[in-house]
Amino acid sequence: MENNRNRNNENKPKKRKNFGEDGFEHWGGYMAAKRAKLLDQFKDSEIPRLSNIFEGVAIHVNGLTRPPNDELKKLMAAHGGLFHMYQTSATTHIIASNLPNVKVKHLGSVPVVKPSWITESIEYGKLLDYRRYLLYTNQSKTQPRIDFPIISNEQVRGNRPPTKTASDPKFLEEFYSNSRLHLISTLGAEFKQLIGDMRDKSDGKFPGKEKLLLKAKKHPIYLPHPVIMHIDMDCFFVSVSLRDHPELQNRPVAVTHARNGQLTNIKPEQKANREQEFSLYADRLPAGVTSRVDRLDTKSSLSEIASCSYEARQCGIRNGMFLGQAVKLCPELKTLPYDFEGIKAVSRLLYETIASYTLDIEAVSCDEMFVDVTRLLKETGLSVDDWAAYIRSEITNITKCPCSTGFGANRLQARLATRRAKPSGQYYLRQEDVENYMTDVKLSDLPGVGRATLSKLERIGLRTCGDVQSADVGVIRREIGQKAGETLKEQSRGIDNRPLNFHHERKSVSAEVNYGIRFKTIDEFYAFLHNLSEEVYNRMNDVNMRARCLTLKLLIRAPEAPKETAKFLGHGVCDSLTKSSNSNAILNNPSVIFGEAKLLYEKLRPPFGDLRGVGLQLTKLERNCSINNALSEFLKGSRKPKEVQKKAKDEAVVRKDESKRNGSKKAKSGNPNAINDYFSKTKQSSGALKSCKIDVNVLNELPDDIRKEIIEEYNLQESVAIECKRNDGELTRNNGENNERFVENRFENLSWNEIKPIIKKWIESDEFPYDIDIEMIAEHFKRLAIDRKIETLPAIFNFLHRNFSSLNCAWHEAYYKMVNIAQEGMVARYGNTLLVKRRFPCCEM
Hints:
Belongs to the DNA polymerase type-Y family. Its cofactor is Mg(2+). It holds the Pfam family IMS_HHH_1. This protein has 845 residues and is of the alpha/beta class. It has 36 helices and 21 strands. The termini are far apart.
């Protein structure tokens, strides 16, 4: 029956489909029409034509590439090529970063090329030979090879845009965009700031920890010692780059700017300069320290290796080694370029992952951190080993990069444990094992022990921590100094009393350049110095700081050093000069910074033609003071100063009238007003400054004519202008009795136990707190923070919150005001705020 049905169907005439003359009437017509439509859209794109480099080239992108698919499409449109969304017979090249063998076998004769063929052809301004960029080749071993002409290195080099020097206006932007050291330092500072911001805004909820609590054991565990975790990403720069080059996994790989370890066409004078420079390096090294250039010849590349894989390290290659030296140790070494965007993305994923479990984090760099996991382990009931395995798996899955973790009772033990854990492992240095473990640790593995210190210690026969443990501390002190000797003695036993720093305090902001510094005129140098001043100002402004000290750092070509350095446009052998400003002026704009830097240079006056490095460092940092709202509104003309004074007086009268009408027992009790009595002299001063709330620091920094105009408008006396002189962080007043925010701190010599009864009497005697009382107490708390005396502040604010809770909202507002003023001191000193209670039954901060 089934056969009959099939036979009948076969006898029926087939219905002809009518598509019209649009390409759909043929077999495969839909896809042909779609491809044609996409090609027409590409040709009609509004991207301006920049060149015809890729004329006759039609590419198809297969898989994930860098630059991505969309970017390559734009590049082809801008430079005369075609972009095929689907591979066709007209496709000339396939662009890919990685393809499985199954796909490669079906590609036929179409070459598979790396995306760098596109970008570098654009850079050189001509179509480069694609064979240098082949990802795979289908050529058999027996197939004869045709010798097509290949563009030589000299031809390519001749078409490169000339390398910029510091005299170029765009040099700084290009230099910092390609500087790994700039990236590392910038990301380190960013993540320290990120952790601080996260701690400030935290609501106490941690999504990662909550997810972990659902899986973890519920019973608590006993931890006799703190548990500090050290996380370090393995071969970080290499790991990030290998995500796009899986074919290089498990092979010796290094990340560096250069491609080749050997240079070609070295001129005789360049050879002589190199030999002279290498000799000078060796002569200047301390006794016993070997030179980094010992195994380099005149053709070796001086490009530094930023990161290398463990397979490369097995050949003797190390981070910081010159590429020319590395390829001699490992001829099959593969080099990869920096992936700055990938590094930034992976770093952020790392920090966000850990921050979802705890914020007890000390950021170290873009790929390294310390974490206090004591509380986390107690709450989850996880053992150290279980937590280590779990978090390493999480980080690897999220970032696609391996990491290692070490654990110990302090930061030193945790860091040394990580060394034991690498690569891609974990290790917990338990307290009972510390003494034996430290015996075999090399002194070079200890933080702070560099080549020079190590050389001194080796001279007296000290090479391991075990040697130091048995050595006389007096001998060590005489060799490396008293403080360094004592620290080394403690470290050799695994002792490190430094706590983790969760609140990073920025000590300096700097910008330095030691590449491409070649000036032909003094005007070129001053133009560069001005650009560098803007750069360092922008960095300082990004962290909301201002400075009071500027240091100019210069590298000057050594008298005996050749003018042309071994490394192209490098600094070579130099002498260093530094000079700092003593004016103590506020450095808060680029022009002021440039003026100070120029004066410092004119005092040193080295030959500008011999400059090889220039740096600016800003120190004595302090938080930018925001202009008081009342003053800001006045300067904008939105409110007249006399209206401000009148409003303040009216509010005071209304408050007193309300107090009388309410018949408050406190108001009628006749109890002495402790704070009012304590500050009686202060209250006799003029209320003008209080009512308009001018920030005297801002007032004093204004030009004389503007300051006088404001004083006249506010009907103030000239005496309100206070000369702020900083001496060891203290403020001294000059006829400042009228400034209620800068009156003498009469609490200064009182302990908290002595201040507490005064505050209790104040609460009992006043129905509403006066602003002057609030500000006076709060200024004392602020001063405690600035002077690093914050031990009692949590107890103080707990006391205030507890006693103010039962009072009216005016006292609650007073509490918030005191908190805000005290936090100013915390931010100025520590760059972070104090954790205090912020809620009352009637309101929330």
